[in-house]
Amino acid sequence: MEPGELAAWLRLTTAPGIGATAARRLLARFGLPQALFEHPAEDWRDCLGPVQGQALQEHRGDALNAHIERTRQWLDAAPGAGVARAIITLADTRYPSALLATPDPPVLLYVEGAGRFLHEDAPPSARRLAIVGSRNPTAQGRENARHFARALREAGLCIVSGLARGVDGAAHEGALAAAPDEASPATIAVVGTGLDQVYPRAHAALAARIAEHGLMMSEYPLGTPPLAGNFPRRNRIISGLSAGTLVVEAALASGSLITARLASEQGREVFAIPGSIHAPQSRGCHALIRQGAKLVETAQDILEELQLAHPAPARSEATDDAEPLADDPLMQALGFDPIGIDALVERTGMDAASLQVRLLELELAGSVARLPGARFQRIGAA
Fold first, then answer.
1. Nearest-CA neighbor of 222 among 336, 2, 70?
2. Residue 96 to residue 240: CA distance in whole angstroms
3. Fold classified for 117-305
4. CB atoms < 10 A from the CB of 2, how many?
5. In what order do the strands lie in the sheet with 244-247?
6. pTM, entire model
7. Residue closest to 183 by CA, chosen among 209, 161, 156
8. Where is pLDDT greater, at 321 or 193?
């Protein structure tokens, strides 16, 4: 992008009070930003109204120039081998066509990722699936997110999520753990900050891996901090990029339900994994299922619904090992809900010391998770 062109786009999209809707209205009337700023300010006010028109007119000078220079330096500074950066606008042929079909597409996207994925809109939205859920999932929920993401990635889908703690992070990790496929991004992280920041900071290493094998994406200018209002808004991009959205776990007041609602409004599929009737993290999924979301138990269910049927995976050693454990009396007593030692003593007749030893063995085998409050939960294969 030429310096003058970049400066015009940044002036338009960073002006206080000029949101995506107003910016698109200006573009529809005046054409590209450079042409817009050749018109007198009175024309803007006629299109925007006096307050927004005045804000756009006054958005110039040292602060704007400093931001433009900061953005140029960010674009030129390659963060690692094979990783590139770009700003993709509505006028760019690389702009995701799936987002263009949504009611509120972002005016531009800041993108960082494997350079080979920045040259085109790939993969097509039919081969992208969003996976979202609780920031505080159960151990089973985290495992489900990781397993579904890996299985769907190995079936050729790109996994889209939001880099948040919990289900989002597990989904990105699962996609990255899949067998390598250099033809398309493993995963896309749509974030609610500027791309010069990582939130949460604990995901800095994960974000770097995503940039190497997929894409990091944001509509927010560089320097944008993690403001609470930005995250629900970015969810429309997560759902809009994807053929469908899978909700792994969600409470009734979860941001994941916003993503599911947006997906439905955008004409995308909505999937939900059912859970325990006793778990707060399952109630949002159950509510979605009652509202018409498709209940899924395996990755194959999603592939079939999207008409991307994939052969069932070969039998693995992990599956073979899990079958004998299914007959273990302690595993049967655990069930799939969190449970404490006292209740297990009552169910099994074992003494507490013996239970602790056996639970540790199962935990080390990856069949049981230890939860806060001295509780345990059986982990099933998704």
1. 70
2. 9
3. Rossmann fold (3.40.50)
4. 8
5. 83-89, 108-114, 215-218, 187-190, 158-161, 128-132, 244-247, 269-272, 294-295
6. 0.85
7. 156
8. 193
For residues 213 and 185, is the Cβ–Cβ distance under 8 A?
yes
Q: Is pLDDT larger for residue 97 or for residue 365?
A: 97
For the 317-378 domain, the top CATH level (class) is mainly alpha
Q: Give the range among 202-206, 263-267, 309-313, 374-378 with minimum mean pLDDT.
A: 309-313
Q: Which residues pair with 207 in a beta bridge?
A: none
Q: How many CB atoms lie within 10 A of CB 104?
A: 15
Q: Where are the domains of the chain?
A: 1-77, 117-305, 317-378
Ordered DSSP codes for 214-276 = SEEEESSPTT----TTHHHHHHHHHHHTSSEEEE----TT-HHHHHHHHHHHTT-EEEE----
Residues sharing a CB contact under 8 Å with residue 356, sequence separation 6 or more, in sequence order: 341
Amino acid 381: pLDDT: 65
Question: 273 versus 317: which is more confidently predicted?
Answer: 273
